[in-house]
Specification:
388 residues, alpha+beta, Creatine Amidinohydrolase, Chain A, domain 1, Creatine Amidinohydrolase, 2 domains, 6-stranded mixed beta sheet, 5-stranded mixed beta sheet, 19 strands, 33% helix, 21% strand, elongated
Length: 388
């Protein structure tokens, strides 16, 4: 935890304090931002208050008094509910604007982790609870130079694996055949060789299955991959090292000499929409403009709508990427939520529009890294359907 940086961020935003609260590990954000060990037993409520100025304050239960010992600040203890209430009142006495893991109307639901009763408790003390969304993005989703290097290392490995996976599909399809699950397992073996890890399994989806954005092949339901088939690969992983950051891409290919005109049409609309998203980010960041996630999604969605495929684009344009593949920075989203979080320097996210038809679906996913004065796509951008 970087206490001085957190306090500077609070002062910059005119927030009096950031109040962290947890029991039973309900708020993993608190553990990551504060650097607390995740494995300890937490059966009672604890609070940790970081004021914009001055010493932090800890409030812990008397039977679990050591939970916050690794953090700076003075400690208060409680046992009964009335004592807890009095202590919360005391530690908040000199503050009014209190940031918590809360989002009005549960809009940014990945951040809105504090229960309504605890919000009632703090508001009942005359405090104004504000969202910690921007603070969480700053301290969870902006990357160090070493983390950026880890992302690029994952990129080099995954780009090569993706290319080789298409080649393997073609080789097997011409020599006895293969199916989705077999190729998924081939990719996982490639991960092991390259010391890559992932929170879930890569997607290998053929024909109609590629029209399901979260399709997962299983041995008993896996579809064969043959000549004339359309194939989607969604591959994400990170290096197996502490603090490593994910790389996450989606490519599409066709097993045979030439994809159909319909496949090319849909791919070109998706590719062009992706490029609209990339340009929106680069133009905004390059001009010094503050740009929010919803603005990128709106630009991409408007392009797909103008092409007549609005009803087939059923998810946000992109998600924050960090040590988790879906991280807590700004998402490129004006569909599932109206994401007003700022796109911050040294943050990473995907641009991945998709059109999902009953017979097949196309998604083209790239990763973008934002710097203080510019933004770049960190990997290769697919320009045409891969001929497998």
């Amino acid at each position: 935890m970087d206490l001085s940086a957190i306090q500077a961020a609070l002062r910059e935003r005119n927030i009096d304090a950031w109040l962290f609260y947890d029991h039973h590990h309900r708020d993993p954000i608190a553990y990551r931002v504060l650097g607390l060990p995740a494995g300890q037993m937490v059966t009672r409520r604890w609070f940790y208050l970081i004021p914009a100025q001055g010493e932090p304050l800890k409030l812990v239960h008397k039977i679990e008094p050591g939970h916050l010992d690794t953090l700076p600040g003075s400690t208060r203890r409680y046992s009964g509910w009335q004592e807890l209430f009095d202590q919360v009142k005391a530690i908040l006495a000199n503050h009014r604007e209190i940031a918590m893991q809360y989002s009005p109307n549960n809009l940014v639901f990945t951040i809105s982790l504090v229960d309504g009763g605890t919000i009632d408790l703090v508001r009942g003390l005359g405090k104004n609870v504000v969202s910690s969304c921007d603070l969480v993005a700053l301290f969870e989703a902006t990357l160090t130079e070493d983390q950026i290097k880890s992302h690029l290392a994952a990129r080099d490995a995954i780009d090569a694996i993706t290319t080789a996976a298409f080649q393997e599909i073609g080789r097997r399809a011409r020599n006895g055949g293969t199916h989705e699950h077999e190729i998924q397992q081939w990719i996982l073996e490639s991960f092991r060789r390259e010391h890559l890890v992932a929170d879930d399994l890569p997607v290998v989806a053929v024909n109609a299955n590629s029209g399901n954005p979260h399709y997962a092949p299983h041995p008993e339901t896996s579809k064969p991959i043959r000549q004339g088939d359309f194939v989607l690969l969604d591959i994400w992983a990170k290096k197996d090292t502490p603090g490593a950051v994910y790389y996450d891409i989606t490519w599409t290919g066709f097993v045979g000499k030439s994809p159909s005109d319909r496949m090319r049409e849909i791919f070109n609309v998706v590719r062009q929409a992706r490029d609209v998203g990339v340009k929106t980010v680069q133009t905004g960041v390059g001009s010094g403009k503050t740009i929010a996630g919803w603005e990128v999604d709106r630009a991409v969605r408007s392009y797909i709508t103008s092409a007549g495929f609005e009803q087939y684009f059923i998810h946000r344009t992109g998600h924050s990427i960090g040590t988790e593949v879906h991280a807590n920075g700004a998402n490129m989203d004006d569909l599932e939520i109206h994401d007003e979080r700022r796109i911050l320097p040294n943050s990473l996210f995907s641009i991945e529009p998709g059109i999902y038809l009953p017979e097949f679906g196309v998604r083209s996913e790239v990763n973008m890294l934002v710097r203080p004065k510019g933004a770049e796509v960190t990997g290769t951008m697919q320009s045409e359907i891969v001929t497998i």
